[in-house]
Amino acid sequence: MTRDEILSKIEEKYKQQEQPMDTYLEGLLHAKAINYWDYIQVDALFSLQKTRTDFPDEVIFVMYHQVTELLLKLVTHELEQATVAEGVTGSMLYEKIKRVQRYTEVAQLSFDVMREGMDPEQYNQFRHTLTPASGFQSATFREIEFYCTDMWNLVYTHKKEELKNSADIDEMFNWIYWQAAGIDRKTGKKSLTLQQFEEKYLDGFKSLAKKYQSRNLWQQFVQLPEEEKTDELIALMKDFDQTFNVKWPLVHLRTAEHYLEHGQEVKAATGGSDWKKYLHPMYQRRMFFPELLSQEELDNWGKDPL
Ligand code: HEM
Q1: Which of 37, 142, 182, 201 is deepest in the core (most CB within 10 A)?
Q2: Which of 126, 205, 279 to mutate to test the pocket of ligand 1 (most atoms within 8 A of CB)?
Q3: Is 139 a residue whose pLDDT tops 70?
Q4: How far is CA 28 from each of CA 7, 79, 203, rounded to the nearest angstrom?
Q5: What's the pTM?
Q6: Residue with the nearest Cα to atom 36 of ligand 1?
C-alpha cells in the first residue's frame, strides 16, 4: 500500500467510528516505542515460578510444567479454530492438525528435561510438599480430548459393552477413563485429587463436551466430502493420535518410574493413583480416531516400545 492509501484507510476507519483522527495521530507522535520485554511480558512471566521448597531442582519441575501448559494451550488454540469454523475443508483440517502434531511432538521429545533432568533425591523430597496436587489436574490436557474426539472414545473399554453407545454425556462422565485414577469402585469414594479437580472443572468439561459432540475434530473429518479424506490427512491424524495418546503417555510413565521407583520401594504418587497401571496407554486405551485403525493397530495400541 502507498502512504496515501494507508492514510486514506486510516481516515476512513476513524470516520466510521466517529472518532477524531487528528487526536489519534497526535497520540502516535507521543507514544513510546514498543520493546521486546513489554510485548512478551517477560517480567510477568518470570514472576510465576513459585516453589514450595529451597531445593534448586524444584524450579525445573515448575517451569517445565508451565512450558507444557503453554504447548497444550497452543494445541487448544488450533483445535478451537478447527472445530468452531463452518465448512471446514480437508486442507484446512490438515494444516491445523499438522500444527497440533508439531506442538505435541515438542512436548513428547522434550520430556527428557523431566525424565533425566532432575536429581531424584531432591525430587523425592520436594514432591511431598505437593500432595495432593498432580499433573492429573491439568484441565488443558482434558480439554484437548473433548476437542478431538467423541465422548464415547473416552469411556472405560470394559464399560462400553454395558452402555452400548446409548449413554448421554452426563452418564458417560461417570465412566470416563480418568475416573480410574481417583475412584475406589468398591466404596465409590473419590480421592481428594479427583474431588478438587471435579469441583473446579467438571461443569465446564460437561458443557465443552456437549458443545463439541457434533463438531469435534473427528466429526469435522467425518463431515468432509470423501475425496477430501486423503491418505495424507488420515496418516497425519493417526500420527497425532499416537503421539498424544501413546508416545507422550509412555515417556511420562517412564519418567514416573525413574523417580518413583528410585531406591528400594515403589512410591505412592502425589495424586494417589495406582499409577503404574493407570498411566500405561496399553491399559488406558485412550484413542481419538479408532475408526482409522486396523485391527492389528487396535490390538497393539500402547504396546510400542519407545
Ligand atoms: C517427574 C515428573 C513427573 C512425574 C513423576 C509424574 C507422575 C505422574 C503420576 C504418578 C500421575 C498419575 C496421577 C497421580 O496419581 O498423581 C501423573 C498424571 C499426569 N501427569 Fe504427571 N508426572 C510428572 C511430570 C508431568 C508433567 C511435566 C506434566 C505436564 C503437564 C504432567 C502431566 C500429567 C497429566 C496430564 C497426568 C494425567 C494423565 C492421564 O490421566 O492419563 N506430568 N503424573
Answers
A1: 182
A2: 279
A3: yes
A4: 13, 37, 46
A5: 0.94
A6: 136
